[in-house]
Amino acid sequence: MDQGLAALIAGVAALVGALASGWYTGRSSRLGAEKAAKAALQQVAEQGAVEHEQWLRDQRQDAHLAFTGELDRAIALVANQVVEVAFQHREPESASMDAARAGIRVATERVVVLGPEEVELEAKLVEEALTDVLDWVRHSALSEPAYNYLNETSHRLMMFHFRRDRYLHAYRNTLRRAPGPQA
Fold first, then answer.
1. b/e map of 87-105 (b: 16 or more CB within 10 Å)?
2. Is 75 a domain residue?
3. Whole-model pTM?
4. Which of 27, 98, 110, 182 is the least buried, fewest Cβ under 10 Å from its Cβ?
5. Residue 178's pLDDT is what?
6. What CATH number did the domain enclosing 165 receive?
7. How many domains does the chain have?
8. What is the mean pLDDT of each run of 10 residues along the chain (183 residues)?
9. Max Cα separation, the chain?
10. Closest CA to 135 of 170, 92, 164
11. What is the pLDDT of residue 132?
């Protein structure tokens, strides 16, 4: 009986040890799996953030090219209109001026949507300066002497170019930032 009782106690002790060992192993495996899953999720999130930043950078570049293209077309139109008004005494083409204003408005809106904030602000200021030039050329065309008209147009164009340079500076700074999960 002593041997039977000893065997029973040894069996119960082995069972308790096996259960404890199994519980500990299972718990350790579960914790390891959870850590691995968290690490994988973190890596996927970071990769997704980097890919989103790259996509956003590409969208911003497309918006920038459209915006500067519209600015260049509008300034070419202004130059043409100023020559016609000042030297050929013709009225400015209202339809062309309206089309230039609409084109720059759409391009500005896209830049504003895509940001970042410092580029958005500078784009709005460039649009404002260009609108000022377009309004001046259109509404002051034949009401001013040619010299005054050209002098004031030149002053407004200088302000436009100043604003355009500030926009380009802000945009270049945005491009210099590398895409990453923190950006």
1. eeeeebeeebbeebbebbe
2. yes
3. 0.71
4. 182
5. 67
6. 1.20.120
7. 1
8. 73 73 76 76 80 87 94 92 81 87 94 91 96 87 78 92 95 78 51
9. 128
10. 92
11. 93
